Amino acid sequence: MDASQVAQVTDMMYALRNPAGVPTYPIIFIGLGVLTFALHILFVQLMLGTSAITIFGAFKDDAKWRRLAAAMLEISKVSVSVAIVIGVAPLLFVQVVYDPHWYTSNVLSANWVIGFIIILIFAYWAMYAYYFMNSKEKDKTKEPKGKIWMLVSLALMLVVGFIMHSLTSQILHPELWKEWYLQNGVLDYSGSKLHANNLWRFAFFISMAIPVTGGMLVTYRRFKMVREDADHEYLNWAASVGKKWIKVGSVISAALYVAWMLTIPETAGDFATSFWGIIGGVMVLFYAIWAQVRLNGEAMFCSYMALPMALVIGLVVAISREMLRYGILDGFFGYDFMDYKIVMDWYSTGMFFLTFAIVGGSVLAYYLTIAWKVGQTVGVYTPSPFVNRLGTIALWILAIWTLQFFVVGFYVWAQ
Ligand code: HEM
């Protein structure tokens, strides 16, 4: 591409930008986008890995694997919900600062964007179909029914992930948007094609399900071992499978990361050998070394660190991934999200962070405390007065928040 062609692409991107501007500093949107993407992909990986264990255990005629499969199905069900809910957050942030890119990519593949939701619903239904077919069975070592549904669920989840991957890849090629829209001189309004992908990049993000789920298995043992009815032999076995998954999985993922870096678009220049290009892969490999050194023997304390470690590593990878996007769009095409027009709105910015910290914090603290205690209690769990008070506080905070929402809304409306 010559300089005038690049300039045309740059102008096109700026022309597509929302003239209304953004309500706070663009860097805040990017920061939150990176953070919430790291959380999204962590739960996606947990969901994929625990689904894979569910399937493996269902097909393997082995009591321990069958038990583990049943336990991991519970985690997979929750992880899908969390992955979907947390997936909305990076979507909101990316569409604010990269609106020309996100919407163009979505319109170019509109059928797939709508199909995404339908496929996801079927994937979720298939998982629940499998769950309901087997939830009444007390003996978890028996061969489960309807294994095909779990296979269907995992396959559809992967299709959903591939659609997301493709939309993200299309963002990185603004120079090709017009070509995709105008195929052989004919405008293509259909939105029926996914135009770009990088299978190494996709494989990398999916493969991280192996070490992340390994971290889950190690944590699972640590969490369950304090129960009076704990079966230590089974739990130790589960943790040893987990450690192996962290070590082997991280090496596989690091290799796929290198393959991704070797195949990034030419417009990324020398990103692969830059600090952010290298650190992502190094951190993934570091997980294997950490597991080898810190998860030795009983490693009671570090067991709980296995998942936060995975999140920190995921966060570094998420920053690298964002730097790659910035490197291409700003570095090559001269489109800088940082120069977005700012129409400062302190109330909504403050409100966002307060909601996040206080409303989200108190409600989550209550739910997580309950979930934690229930998981470690044999029989029926009765909350302590402190936990009950936590619940009451959470309800009050929610009520006050809802009230202020309407009061401010009506006040603004009446102006
Ligand atoms: C449940 C199945 C899902 C899977 C397997 C999945 C997988 C993925 C993967 C692999 C990526 C990384 C793509 C890349 O950078 O190459 C990604 C990114 C993303 N996903 Fe998901 N995802 C799922 C569901 C969702 C849902 C339901 C939402 C939103 C409602 C969502 C929102 C996002 C967003 C916003 C990104 C980042 C886009 C960007 O930065 O350009 N995902 N997802």
Automatic annotation (TrEMBL):
Protein name listed in UniProt: Uncharacterized protein
UniProt KW Transmembrane keyword: yes
Organism for this UniProt entry: Thiomicrorhabdus lithotrophica
Transmembrane intervals: 27-59, 80-98, 110-127, 148-167, 199-220, 271-289, 301-320, 346-369, 390-414
UniProt keyword Transmembrane present: yes
Alphabetical UniProt keywords: Membrane, Transmembrane, Transmembrane helix
